[in-house]
Amino acid sequence: MQTLIAFSELPSKGIVYSRNYIDRMIKEHRFPKPVFLSPRRRAFVEAELDAWVKARVDQRDAVT
User: Fold this and answer.
1) Ramachandran region of residue 61, left (φ > 0), alpha (ψ -120 to 50) or beta?
2) In what order do the strands lie in the sheet with 41-45?
3) Is pTM, for the whole model, over 0.85?
4) Measured CA distances, 56 to 11, 35, 38, 52 (Å)
5) Is the Cβ–Cβ distance between 43 and 4 less than 8 Å?
6) pLDDT-derived band of residue 63, with 50, 70 and 90 as boundaries?
7) Which helix (H) or strand (E) holds 44?
């Protein structure tokens, strides 16, 4: 079973970008796509967010 994270809960994952910036990253395929719960309500799969954050950390560590 997948756990879904609402946009308002993203800061608890350390993701503090604005809604507009996240939408731009989604469009550019640089952020996990949301799951639409209704036409105006969306959430993100927690495992995908965790993998995205881990990839940012791994990318940082590969540079040093």
Assistant:
1) alpha
2) 4-6, 41-45, 35-38
3) yes
4) 16, 22, 30, 6
5) yes
6) confident
7) strand 41-45
